[in-house]
Amino acid sequence: MSTDHDLLASSDEEVCTIIGKAVVDLSITGQPVNKATLALKLLAMADQDSDEERILLYWIARRAINQPHRFAAASY
Fold first, then answer.
1. For 8-16, which contacts have Cβ atoms below 8 Å and span 24 or more sequence positions?
2. Which domain holds residue 11?
3. Ramachandran region, residue 5 (left: φ > 0; alpha: ψ -120 to 50; beta: rest)
């Protein structure tokens, strides 16, 4: 039986994984890794995905990149 905390932790892990994949993809292609390029990469990744839940995770990841203080506060 999973709890709300387990679901949040799982989502947090997925968001971190998505951000990590975006960083790796940018690095492989020789692009700079910063807030702007990460946000654009996450947007592109969301555009290429058809799973609505994953698209939401991409948007959460973008928000975490652009407003990390809000994301950290929401995790507690």
1. 8/75, 11/57, 11/60, 12/75, 14/57, 15/57, 15/60, 15/61, 15/64
2. 4-74
3. alpha
Domains contained in the chain, number = 1
Interior CA angle at 62 toward 68 and 20, to 5°? Answer: 85
Return the higher-pLDDT residue of 28 and 72. Answer: 28
The first and second tokens of residue 74, run together, are 């929401």
CATH number reported for the structural domain that contains residue 35 in this entry: 1.20.5.5260
> Position of tokens 């890794």?
33
Q: Which amino acid is at 35?
A: K
Q: pTM score > 0.90 for this model?
A: no
pLDDT tens digits, 16-68: 999 999 999 999 999 999 999 999 999 999 999 999 999 999 999 999 998 87
